[in-house]
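User: Some background: our group keeps a shared notebook of sequences we're curious about, and every so often someone picks one and asks for a predicted structure to add to the entry. Today it's my turn. The entry only has the sequence so far, pasted here. Could you supply the structure so I can complete it?
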Amino acid sequence: MTANPILLQKKYSRVIACFAKRQGISLDAALEFFYHSEVYQLIRDGVSDMHCMSDAYLAEELEQEYAGKMPDAKGGIF
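Assistant: Of course. Here's the predicted structure to add to the notebook entry:
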C-alpha cells in the first residue's frame, strides 16, 4: 500500500523530531541520519506498511539502527 506523499513528509518530520529529542541530538543530525537509514527506505518503499506504525515506534526503530551504526550513539559522527 502506498501512502500520500504529503502525509509521508509530515510523518517523517514527526519521527525525526521524536528521534532527535530521545537521542539528545540536533534536528539536523537526526534528519541526516534518518534519510540515510534503513527505516526511511522501508517507509518510503511501503514495506510492511511501516508508514502505518506510530511515530514513537518508528523513532525507536531508528534508535536501534543508530545504536548499531554509531560506536558512541550520543557522540557519534552525526
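Suggested note for the entry: Residues 18 and 59 are 6 Å apart (CA to CA). The first helix runs from residue 5 to 23.
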